[in-house]
Hints:
This protein has 2 helices and 32 strands. By secondary structure, the protein is α/β, with parallel strands linked by helices.
Amino acid sequence: MRQKTPVGFTLIQVLVTAGVIAMLSVIMAAGIINQQRFAQRTERAVSSTFIAEAGINYYLWHLSHNANDYCDGKACETQGEFGYGPFTYDYKTPDGRVAGSYQVYVKPPQGSSATVTIRSVGQAKNSPIRTLQASIAVPSFAQYAILTNTEIWIGSNETVDGPLHSNIGIHFDGIGNDAITASQVSYRPSSQFGGNGQTQNGVWGNGGPNNLWRFPTPPVDFQSVTADLQKMKTDAQANGQYLPPTNPANPNSKLGYYLELRSDGRIDVYRLTREQCSSTNRTFIQTINAPANNILFAEDNIWIRNVPGQAYSGRLTIAAAYMPSSSSTDKSITIMGNILYSAKDGSSSIGLIGQKDVRVSRQAPSTLEIHAALLAQNGSVRYNKDTLGGSSCSQQVKTKLTLYGAIATNQYWTWTYVAGGGGGYTPIDGYATTVNSYDKQLRFSPPPSFPLTGTFSILNYRELLSSP
């Protein structure tokens, strides 16, 4: 027998159901409105971020055309906490509509760093501000552990610590831990670099890991160093230490200066009067103070070492060059003994730039340590097989050479000469054991006025929660 549902109870159910539906509708509507508001806020915030990014890009472009202008083409006033600025610009859409504005602050390199800091505050119309900051720098020739303008062969028993680049190609049988790059897509290696007449890729061989190999990549212009050397000469004469030719009447002279670096930053200067296979003759001239701008330029050949038992404290670049450059008068640097700096934290660095070669002397000790970025503009970074004047010397095998720094060489680089083949090679001249370690501080904090190559690169990039 069916029972009738009370009318009052049905009405209550209807009212409860309607109330629940109404409540859910209100909640859904509020959620939709909140989502729309959040989307609008996010869109406006993203727009402000894009505008701030435009400020970073603008000043990156500006510095690429004038690398030392930190004041947007204006007279530089006192730096504030965030550098020079603000430099304010409207941000316009492609159709010319003003969509917001950005303010740019620029902080020049501080201390020993070569890094420029750009801070950009962007704001779209009716939107919250967003602040971005980027650190940028132009890499130097010391951005590579090894840089060469010719082909190179890394053997199976060799390890390359840091980036390696050749403007031609690389036969790589060793082990690397950073980028291995070549400027050519392919080349035909010569027999002395392991070639067999076949065309090879820009980087090839049995080494690895080959996921670090890159080719082709842009070449590095060694001839651009000529302008750098001329500027270094001018800067050394103005506010550094300049050493004139020891024999002005004969710019082809193979003699020059003998320098000893002291732990107090000063430099003992001698005139070298004779070089033989096993000895040199020199006459003391003077002790000079550390250059105010950390540049020493000698318009002559240089022989150099630390004062025995001492390490140099500070940052210093030494160049040997006769201007204008000519193959018959180009000058070289010869390393006679240990060259050490006191700390490996970037506070100390040494750059040695030879217009022709940077050499290690036959007279250097059997165990030798060098802390420096070495650059041979037109010649080689190598162990001496003879004297600078060309006198032939007997072969001798030394124990160990350790380099902490970087090598940039126009022609070949070697610390060891070998004989043999087939099953192996035997050292017959130079250092039997060599260890080359890359000073990573040099990549963007090179020695003072060390030649640069390429354009500004962004080192790091981040959003800040606060703004000027």
